[in-house]
Specification:
It is found in: Mitochondrion membrane. About 45% of the residues lie in helices and about 0% in strands.
Length: about 55
């Protein structure tokens, strides 16, 4: 059964990972984030408790 022969598929997998690691990944990582993370601590919203009419 040719599906179980790892010879061509291992080379294809290895070639694709090398391509991704050496060429595509640095290009993707070079982009700047449009919304960089900030160091500010988020403030919780000011909420008031609900007043029930029957209490």
């Amino acid at each position: 059964m040719p599906q179980l022969n790892p010879n061509p598929w291992f080379f294809i997998m290895l070639t694709s990972w090398v391509t991704y690691s050496m060429i595509i990944q640095p290009k993707i990582l070079s982009f700047l984030s449009p919304n960089p993370p900030s160091n500010n601590t988020p403030t919780p919203p000011n909420t008031t408790p609900w007043t029930w009419p029957w209490t």
